[in-house]
Design a protein that fits this description.
7 helices; Chalcone isomerase
Length: about 180
Amino acid sequence: MLALAASAGHAAEFAGVKLPDSVRVGNADLALNGAGLRARMVFKIYVGALYLAEKKSSAAEALAAAGPKRIAMFLMRDLSAAQLSGALDEGLADNLSALEREKMQPQIDALRATMQLVGAAKEKSVLAIDYLPESGATRLTLDGMQKGNLIPGEEFYRALLKIWLGDKPVDAKLKAALLGQG
């Protein structure tokens, strides 16, 4: 978390997690769009934060926004690679058609492989998923360190964002919070 917060002021504290008000992704500074808690039953899993170049209050606007983007998960418990990968797979399956998933299968496979490289992510770690327009690719970092190779395709990054911002988000309250509505 320190790597993300370095030289940035804190805009918010959410569920005990201090969130930077801005982050640098590629050559751009991004602002905190919104943040919220992801919980299952009584377990706090992570604080999610969405960073964009300009504030967006609708999912359609956020998904269509040009330029770099970041979704960050500030972990509140230890998660295994299988848990991380399974949750991402489930979110993609809920928000993409079979044809879209088939078309993106190479990127989905690359994401699974990257999650295996991540291994177990410990409580207080920060998993960030960035879109880098200069390379047209998605980058995963854990505590500021890149994991795996870049995964090509802007459409793939939009598909990942649908996990949180799609028609069937992982958590409707979290979706609203990421869009500054919660």
